[in-house]
Amino acid sequence: MLDVRRLRLLRDLANLGTIAAVAEAHTYTASAVSQQLAALQRQTGVALLEHTGRRVTLTPAGRELVAHTETVLAALEAAAAAVAAARAGLSGTIRLGAFPSAVRTMLPAALVALGRDNPGLDLMVTEIDPVAVPEALRTRRLDVALWHDYDVVPAPPDPALESVPLLDEAVYLAAPAALDAADADPVAAARHCDWILGTPGTLCHTVAVRVCEARGFAPRARHHVDDFDAALTLVAAGQGVTLVPLLGAGQPPPRVRLLPLATHRRTRIGYRRGAGDHPAVAACVDALRSIVESLESATPTVLA
What we know:
By secondary structure, this protein is of the alpha/beta class. It has helices spanning 4-16, 19-26, 30-44, 60-86, 100-105, 107-117, 133-138, 186-189, 203-213, 228-236, 246-249, 279-298; strands at residues 49-52, 55-58, 92-98, 121-127, 144-150, 161-176, 194-197, 220-224, 242-245, 256-272. Residues 2-59 form the HTH lysR-type domain.
């Protein structure tokens, strides 16, 4: 019988690319990961890994085993969900991840509702950039996550994860009031402006660059800021322009104009494949959807 923990390490190596990254994700030493993968190779009797220079890559047999591993892990998640559903009441720790604007707007009310209706749940929140969500769910550092992409930068499917839609938001160009936006395309009008971008490597940074490149120019980055409120304050101070989704716009400072774009941010509730019927996961989904429905009633323009 193949060891599930070793299979999970092989799967994570396929996704993360290096033994060092797998070790960090699981808080193991690199040596311990290598030893477990070597033991898995001995169990299977075939080569699962090969060395390419200083890197370790999966052989065709290794990739085939990873594909089966996803099915095995999903079945285990479904089995755990079935057992949890047979218990009376909900208990245990649920680790939720969310991006900053969701932590500020949607998550507090959802946590209150979850805690009120399920006092046995121990709810733990981690603020996380969407690009880090898949790894955090796969390696079990999170159980449920608010996970978004943009229509201009769609998230690739992940065989280890499932998700349900939650929210679709309009995106705006936040600009000083003095910006001449007579152009039908606000981004094109900001071609020669300084830009306030997210940290390179974050989804927000990628989106801004992609939106500008679609208009035939690269944004001239003056500042790198990941907090939307801080970015809007810099816009008000005449430090540049930035992109902001509706949830991140809040109450913009005076002298800041929000110019609507055709771009949208799409938020989903993500969890490991097979875990959707777990009562605690289902409770999180229901609470978040209820909060979004109330937000939409109060702010109909959330859905553009």
